[in-house]
């Protein structure tokens, strides 16, 4: 009989139920649309930050980092296979590795840095999620802006180092850092040129920030992992790049949190207003049921079950509508190509729990109104 | 046995205070058809509501099977309404979204009994409603709705049947049918109490209570004729 009354009440005075359903669906649609497009906006920001450069330097634990920064002769060397070893550990937060061998040289009385590089990919890196530093082909060089000036050569031109000729594949825009003085070569070419076969001085990498709540926590976690995998190495985080990427991530998640609160408040308001209206409209029916011996738990059960059904249906409809809307009309500049824009199914249980919790809590207000009703007063009034 | 001991009911306070029922005492044994009659506003419906566990008296006790109804709180009253009382309201009070079958089944279901289709058909058939089972209350005449209300009350096989103006809006044929059913219920051992202006029902009654301004008044032929227009 409970189910029969429930269904009958859903049909009878259906407009008020339709109003709750449509309003909840609309706010959920809006939330899911923003939630989904925002995750792509967030991803786009992260990729932009990623392309600003690698944010982590890995060097021997005994190495004075200043020697690496200044490219002195006191830099320690270690086997290039170390990078391959790190790349095998998928649990490390670092990825997009770059093996580096660097050494100062003098050309026409000017200091330049010969820098051999080789990107080393992790198995889980797709071509789309490529290393922000492209490889340098054998026999070619990529020049910093100042190095190109000193060598007096442009893109496509040739220059020689220790009697070896290199063709310039690109001249980089000025950075305002010592990197402007770098001559980037293929790692093998540099090792041959500097007579350091199989050796490197440093590894650059990109620390992914998806684990942990704060930047410090993320760095500490990565340090612990690195100490386990390669105890003779240490990491130095390039704070500005890491922080920028971290802020891009947290800004979006905080924005979504406040949006969620607003959606919850709006949903609660709708349920309270329509619920109170429904309790008033169903006074007569309530009076009849109470007079026939129905208890308040029975009546409260009717209201809560109805709210749960409407919230569940609205969650499904709102989720699919919002998800499809985001797939259909997400701005092209937000599309990242690293993952397809699709319905965020993984978020559905969380959204359902939220909507139901908010709707059931809000329904308590009309229920308080309901339990204050006197069946006799209602029926006499009628 | 249903016993009313010095029952009073007051509504409002101060200048808006209304003494709806005052010092009514009455004993009703199973198998009796009792009638409360009096002018409109004399307190008949209020008295019935109190007897039906729907309105707490301001003073006095209403005992059913030796226990005061209003001593045990809301849960006990709900059980009393659900298990022991069949109430026929003057305005029928049928659930608008249920058809006749489901309205009758509701009473059985509330009493924890499976609403068997055959049993419901039998009750409805006895009241001439067999062909109206799939209709909704809004599709029935007043007489038919009153019969449904009676069917609802009888379906639960309650100990007490309370009927507020059960024949008030009915034609002679329907009134006779309802009166006959109430009489039959009393003869079957139930306590039947009706508030009415209907002379036919008054004549069928075993016990009568005349209310004037909420108080019991001497019950005599003159009062009956005056109030029932005979």
Give a structural overview.
The complex is a heterodimer of chains A (382) and B (230). Chain A has two domains: 2-47 and 247-379, no CATH class; 54-237, no CATH class. The model of chain A has no long low-confidence stretch (mean pLDDT 86). Chain A has twelve helices and eleven strands. In chain A, the strands form two sheets. A nine-stranded mixed sheet of chain A has the order 6-7-5-8-4-3-10-1-11. A two-stranded antiparallel sheet of chain A has the order 2-9. In chain A, strand 3 (94-107) and strand 4 (110-120) form a beta hairpin. Chain A has 382 residues and is an alpha+beta fold. Chain B is of the alpha/beta class. Chain B has one domain (27-51, 81-228): Rossmann fold (3-Layer(aba) Sandwich), CATH 3.40.50. Helix content of chain B is 37%, strand content 26%. In chain B, the strands form two sheets. A six-stranded mixed sheet of chain B has the order 6-7-8-3-9-10, with helices on both faces. The two termini of chain B are 33 Å apart. The relative contact order of chain B is 0.20. Chains A and B meet through helix 1, helix 9 and helix 12 of A and helix 2 and helix 3 of B.
Which key phrases capture this entry?
heterodimer, A: 382 residues, alpha+beta, 2 domains, nine-stranded mixed sheet, two-stranded antiparallel sheet, 11 strands, 54% helix, 17% strand, elongated, B: 230 residues, alpha/beta, Rossmann fold, six-stranded mixed sheet, four-stranded antiparallel sheet, 8 helices, 10 strands, globular
């Amino acid at each position: 009989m409970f189910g029969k009354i429930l269904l009958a009440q859903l049909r009878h005075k259906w407009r008020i139920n339709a109003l709750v359903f449509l309003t909840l669906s609309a706010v959920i649609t809006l939330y899911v649309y923003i939630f989904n497009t925002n995750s792509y906006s967030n991803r786009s920001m992260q990729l932009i930050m990623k392309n600003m450069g690698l944010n982590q330097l890995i060097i021997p634990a005994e190495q004075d980092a200043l020697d690496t920064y200044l490219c002195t002769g006191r830099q320690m060397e270690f086997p290039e296979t170390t990078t391959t070893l790190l790349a095998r550990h998928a649990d490390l937060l670092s990825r997009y590795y770059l093996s580096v061998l660097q050494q100062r040289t003098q050309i026409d009385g000017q200091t330049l840095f010969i820098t051999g590089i080789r990107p080393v990919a992790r198995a889980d890196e797709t071509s789309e999620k490529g290393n922000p530093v492209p490889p340098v082909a054998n026999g070619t060089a990529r020049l910093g802006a100042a190095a190109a000036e000193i060598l007096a050569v442009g893109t496509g031109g040739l220059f020689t180092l220790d009697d070896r000729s290199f063709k310039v594949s690109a001249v980089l825009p000025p950075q305002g850092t010592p990197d402007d003085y770098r001559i980037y070569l293929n790692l093998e070419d540099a090792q041959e040129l500097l007579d350091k076969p199989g050796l490197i001085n440093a590894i650059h990498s990109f620390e992914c920030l998806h684990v942990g709540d704060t930047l410090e926590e993320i760095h500490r976690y990565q340090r612990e992992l690195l100490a386990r995998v390669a105890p003779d190495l240490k990491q130095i985080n390039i704070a500005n790049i890491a922080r920028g990427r971290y802020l891009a991530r947290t800004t979006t998640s905080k924005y979504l949190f406040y949006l969620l609160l607003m959606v919850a408040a709006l949903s609660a308001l709708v349920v309270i207003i329509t619920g109170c209206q429904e309790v008033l409209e169903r006074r007569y029916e309530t009076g009849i049921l109470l007079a026939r011996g129905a208890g308040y738990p029975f009546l409260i059960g009717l209201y809560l079950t109805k709210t749960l059904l409407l919230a569940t249906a609205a969650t499904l409809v709102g989720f699919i509508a919002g998800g499809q809307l985001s797939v259909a009309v997400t701005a092209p500049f937000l599309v990242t190509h690293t993952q397809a824009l699709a319905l965020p199914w993984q978020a559905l249980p969380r959204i359902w729990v939220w909507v139901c919790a908010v709707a059931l809590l809000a329904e308590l207000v009309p229920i308080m109104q309901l339990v204050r009703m006197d069946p006799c007063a209602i029926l006499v009034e009628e | 046995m249903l016993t009313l001991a010095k029952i009073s009911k007051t509504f409002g306070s101060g200048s808006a205070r209304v003494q709806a029922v005052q010092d009514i005492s009455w004993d009703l044994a199973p198998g009796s058809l009792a009638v409360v009659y009096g002018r409109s506003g004399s307190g008949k419906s209020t008295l019935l509501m109190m007897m039906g566990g729907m309105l707490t008296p301001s003073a006095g006790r209403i005992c059913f099977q030796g226990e005061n109804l209003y001593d045990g709180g809301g849960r006990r009253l709900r059980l009393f309404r659900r298990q022991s009382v069949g109430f026929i309201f003057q305005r029928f009070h049928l659930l608008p979204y249920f058809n006749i079958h489901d309205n009758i089944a509701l009473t059985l279901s509330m009493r924890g009994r499976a609403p068997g289709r055959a049993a419901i058909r039998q009750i409805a058939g006895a009241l001439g409603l067999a062909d109206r089972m799939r209709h909704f209350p809004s599709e029935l005449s007043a007489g038919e709705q009153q019969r449904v209300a009676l069917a609802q009350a009888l379906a639960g096989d309650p100990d007490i049947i309370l009927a507020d103006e059960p024949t008030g809006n009915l034609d002679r044929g329907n009134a006779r049918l309802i009166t006959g059913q109430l009489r039959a219920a009393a003869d079957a051992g139930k306590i039947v109490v009706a508030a009415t202006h209907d002379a036919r029902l008054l004549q069928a009654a075993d016990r009568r209570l005349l209310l004037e301004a909420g108080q019991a008044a001497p019950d005599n032929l003159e009062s009956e004729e005056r109030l029932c227009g005979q």
